[in-house]
Structure prediction request, 174 residues.
Amino acid sequence: MAWDDPKIDMIYKYPMAGSMICYFSLELVSFAGCQMPELVNVNVNWIAAMSCRFWCVCTISEIWGCYLKLKELELEVTTLRELLAEKKKNDDKEGFLQIEHDIQYWMKQVPLVKLQILRDLLFILPAVSWSLPTYHTSPLLSDFNSNGLLFLEACVHACQLMYRATLQPSLYYA
Prediction:
């Protein structure tokens, strides 16, 4: 789906993509440092903490992008509802049905965006906890709490996927 607000594309192209490149690169170095410490001599804890900081940047950027998407969806639905009232006033039944169909399409996108925001919010605390240089000695969150939040995120992701699967293919892949 193409968005009218150019900031949405900018967010996904630059802060999100750039932070993920840094995140995965640093995670690779951290993993190599753990698996082959004699070959890759780095401070693994510091590298892992830095990678999680980039993960935080990506997550916060996505929340920002989703907020802009919600604003755009709200504007689109408001515009279509005004047009719907005009079609109803002019007794244009075919145009009325098409606009009603369009409103349904846009309204079905809202829960997907809101679920994505919820997933990102569930990611934030573990990402912040793991991004602290003292994570291994005095973590912000216990492993139980971090794993619990990530389990909830996985459940929300499953709900998001099931909701997406229930959308009519003609509406979703349009």
In short: The mean pLDDT is 91. The chain has five helices and no strands. Residues 44-89 form the longest helix (46 residues). The helical segments are 6-35, 44-89, 93-131, 143-166, 169-172.
